[in-house]
Design brief:
The protein is α/β, with parallel strands linked by helices. The chain has helices at residues 10-22, 46-57, 103-113, 133-141, 151-160, 187-197, 200-211; strands at 3-7, 37-41, 66-75, 85-93, 96-99, 119-126, 146-148, 166-174. A five-stranded mixed β-barrel has the order 3-7-6-4-8, surrounded by four helices. A hairpin with a 2-residue loop joins strand 4 (85-93) and strand 5 (96-99).
Amino acid sequence: MPLLIACALGIEQVALRSALRSGLAGRGGRTHGTGPVTVLRTGMGPKNAEHATARALGTDRHRDAAVIASGFCAGLVPGMNPGDLIVADETRGSHGVTRCTGTGLLVEALSLALPGRTVHTGPLAGSDHVVRGPERAGLRATGAVAVDMESAATLRTALSAGPRPVAAVRVVVDAPEHELVRIGTVSGGISAFRVLRAVIPAFLEWHRSLLLPRR
């Protein structure tokens, strides 16, 4: 089974691909004993994520791929900091809720790969625009812990194309007390980039663990 990692931005793709190329993924690099790993840049927004994911999963190479939606997000919980990790137990979008696979496995793998980093779990809300101020507080009131524009559309589209493991892992780039204007221009954005570059080993461990035979 291949692994497809979907992200929206070029800077996210650079972080994830550079980890694979530099050997941070461990021995085997882009093929780690369970199938090829592809980092797909979808473009911003739910429509772009939907179309790019559907195209990728329509090819023979990725038809049966497990899918992880990744990249940056906005944290909703007071006290969150740039560089904190979000592991969704479900994504929520305009078309409903998608349950994620192996949330506990991912939390454990990320805690090992990034000791000292805070890992939050909970619902990941979807939006078609950048969320700020009062709207952020409104989403928090629904129980969501973070929001981004692509994860919900990516995972819903992936499951529409056939049964497969799906997950969403995001790195907080801004939070209620740490809003930023442009990624990469302040320390919060730089911190989030470094964390995103370090998640690949955990993704591969999640993928490998899901494929192990169960007794």
